[in-house]
Amino acid sequence: WAGRVILVLTISFLIYGTYNAYNPLVRSFSIQIEQGTSSLDSLTIAMAADTHFGLLSGKDHAKRLVKEINGMEPDIILLPGDLIDDDIQPFVDQGIDEVLSELHAPYGVYATLGNHDRHNGTMKELIDTIERSGINVLYDEAVTIKDQLTLIGRKDRRDPDRLELNQIMKGVDLSKPVILLDHQPYDLDIAQKAGIDLMLSGHTHHGQVFPGNLITDSIYENAWGHLKKGSMQSIVTEGFGFWGPPIRIGTRSEIVRIQVNFE
Hints:
Elements: H1 2-22, E1 25-33, E2 42-47, H2 59-72, E3 76-80, H3 88-93, H4 96-100, E4 109-112, H5 123-131, E5 136-137, E6 141-145, E7 149-153, H6 165-168, E8 178-181, H7 188-194, E9 198-201, H8 212-219, E10 225-229, E11 232-236, E12 254-262
Parallel strand pairs: 1-12, 2-3, 3-4, 4-5, 7-8, 8-9, 9-11
Antiparallel strand pairs: 2-12, 6-7, 10-11
């Protein structure tokens, strides 16, 4: 009987974990940011990180992402890292780039790269492949969106050529809102001092499988969710995809909707 109970529990947890991995929910946050010289009154952001598109997080999961995000009718779509799962080839072979090309937002679709966004070729080849999807990859660079706000995307923390944040921000107009995409949610104090208004990250998966969340909570100042740090705000998603087996226990595949109201 003990063996049967263990078997039933194991199968139940596998079914439950697989359901959590492949059935995303939409998690919503409402925040306020100083308007400054921008004329924006509000901004709706759709955010998804750690999609890990590849063999297991495949074309069908990408279609779920597109359907949910387009259904939000966001003003801008932001993807802070780990779009692929170490190898770009399954991404291309399954036509996931074509699926993601259906993402639409008036202010565009922007991404930064994470520690799993890599392949055997050059980084330019990787970025060119992702950008065929209509996704603008920010690789240690800042862009001004319709003269209303600045968006900064950083190289991953493990990249040896990653610039310091203050180098990327030279010439950035701090009188307008500044949003930072940084895959790994480290150095919140540096972002705060630099004048960042909103920092968006992923990477942690919030542990993915309990009790992994206890570990991530001990490592990161903000391992998941929303944190206000002085005038800066940090939002970390537990991820749309998964790393390793498609199982989430104690966490859930998610897309984040951020409603920004400018004061």
